[in-house]
Amino acid sequence: MSAVPDVVAAPVVVEEANRTHMSWGFAELFLISQTALPALLYLPGTQPFRLPIRVSAFAISLAAFAWWQIDSTIHISAPKVQSWAAAIIALLTLMLFHPSTPNILGGLAHIGVYVAVIAPLFWAPVFVRTPERLARLFWILLLCSGANSVIGVLQVYNPSRWLPAEFSTIVTSGVMGLGPVSFHGPNGQLIVRPPGLFDTPGAVAGPGMSAALLGLVFATSAMVPAWKRVLSLTLSGAGLAAIYLSQVRISLVIAVLMVIVYVMTTFRQGRYARGTQLAILGGAMVFVSFLLALALGGTAIQDRVMTLLTGDPISVYKSARGVQLNLTFSELLFDHPFGSGLARWGMAAGYFGTFDPLRPPLWAEIQFTGWMIDGGILLIALYCGAIVLTALSEWQVAIHSRVPRLATCAAVTLAANLGVAALIFSFTPFVTQIGIQYWFLAGALHGVATRYGDSAA
Q1: Which one of 150, 188, 345, 368 is at 20 to 30 Å from 223 when CA atoms are compared?
Q2: Burial class for 62, CB neighbours closer than 10 Å (0-12, 13-18, 19+)
Q3: Inter-CA distances, 131 with 14, 128, 409, Å
Q4: Which tens digit of pLDDT belongs to each residue from 41-56?
């Protein structure tokens, strides 16, 4: 029996849930846009418009933030983490005047990326008000991530039909072209790491993580019709297979950890049968999807996965992203403890930065390095503090909510967001769309929990 009591919500909340159960709004369209807009780059002839297409996904979040500031008539209590987010934005604004910031335009663009990523924390609570609405958003996220993953698998199965006609010029402009992002298949053919509905090889690994977790959650839900459970399980398997084929090892590790976090949270809630069922099914899907990826990608897939099992995990990390972590805390920390200026790395630097010998472009492969460049040790402390506070809030809602469906949504949000947070050691999630997803889910959960009297933020 569940340890989360099944109580009736306040009448006004129940009435709102019934009224909005079937209605769609900005939240649903926003979530779809985060897949649909980048997918435009999958179409031939879109590379000349890459910048406006990439910017559009962030611009929607900024527009919603502006609306929230100017015209929102709905007011709910702000989560505590909002003050941390405001401090982050204030620090970055101050860094705009750092002497090493190449130019004002580049600095403003860099700040714009940060604000667009974290902005859903402020406006998402206004749009998402009921557990039913939040569950529907998870379903939409599963369909979008699942479609992305299925396309990724098909890109290895039949690349002549499913691979994008044009890849990002950022990738192909290198000396070796697609060589570093490809591997040899079963018959010796060159296989490009699948991009999914995007134009960057290997990019499908991110959506694959979401599909793997959410597919298992819906597949084990008694409230979901049988056909949806079958579809969910299929999309979960496609997500895992896409991760294997992308050869992004950290995404595989994090996907498994996300499932483990969700299972442990359900156990803590007292839902032992649900947690056990999901754990068993998840283990089976990891194995089955590996066999599918092995059949499509050949022994290169096995060799890549085996490096996680046969080698020391710390040594594997050091050989991949450990160099950047060492650079951050052994060099940048002492050379530039308070940051190196804005627009020195990333998308804003590439499109808007202007450099000279005294202010050359810098390289950041992990989030810690990016934070150290942008705001030094203070920015690292502020953003890590915001992440920890968000995780604690989500945990409190998952464990103490009086509404079972809200508790379930909180457990899913916690598992999904901890997966994104773990990427800071190997990627730069909080200047990309996966960071937008993180803060959108955090804000949406707070909006629902506050209305049901269960917010711990």
Answers
A1: 150
A2: middle
A3: 11, 8, 7
A4: 988 888 889 899 999 9
